[in-house]
Amino acid sequence: MKFTSFHIKIIAFFVTSFFFLIEALIHYNMGKNGKFTLSIPEKKTIFKILLIIFFFSFLSSATTYFIEMLLKSNLVK
């Protein structure tokens, strides 16, 4: 299977989201319990965390895409 630029960006989005989730859960537990743990909060809270993570992962991916397009268009000229 040949990966296109779009496939790579989708993979990057999900990889980034996964690592952001791990980081968010650690921060959540540190704030709630005052120690370094990794437990899953209740459904409502995890849903809010995932929404925020997906939003910022999308912003990160979109920004990378537009910077790449900008650089490619300036290099072609």
Describe this structure in words.
1% of the residues are buried. This protein starts with a helix and ends with a helix. It has two helices and no strands. It has one domain. The model has no long low-confidence stretch (mean pLDDT 88). The chain has helices spanning 5-33, 43-76. Helix 1 packs antiparallel against helix 2 (43-76). The chain is mostly helical and 77 residues long.
> What overall geometry do the principal axes of the alpha carbons give?
elongated
What share of the residues lie within helices? over 70%
Number of strands: 0
Give the terminus-to-terminus CA distance. 32 Å
Unreliable residue runs:
none
Q: In what range is the share of β-strand residues?
A: under 5%
Keywords:
mainly alpha; single chain; 77 residues
Q: Helix and strand layout, with pairings?
A:
Layout: H1 5-33, H2 43-76
Helix pairs in contact: 1-2
Question: What is the gist of this entry?
Answer:
With 77 residues, this protein is mainly α.
